[in-house]
Amino acid sequence: MRIVSLIASATEIVWGLGYGDKLVARSHECDNPHDVTKLPAITTPKFTIDGNSLDIDRKVKAVVADGLAVYHVDPQALERLKPDLIVTQDQCEVCAVSLTDVERAVCQWAGAQAKIVSLKPDCLADIDRDIRKVAAAIGDDAAGERLAGRVRGRIDAVAEAIARLRRPRIAFIEWIAPMMSGGNWMPELIAAAGGENLFGEAGKHSGYMQFAELAAADPEVIIVAPCGFDIARTRAEMPLLEREPGWRELTAVRNGRVALADGNFYFNRPGPGVADTAEIIAEILHGPPIDYGYRGRGWMPYA
Question: pTM for this structure?
Answer without folding.
Answer: 0.90
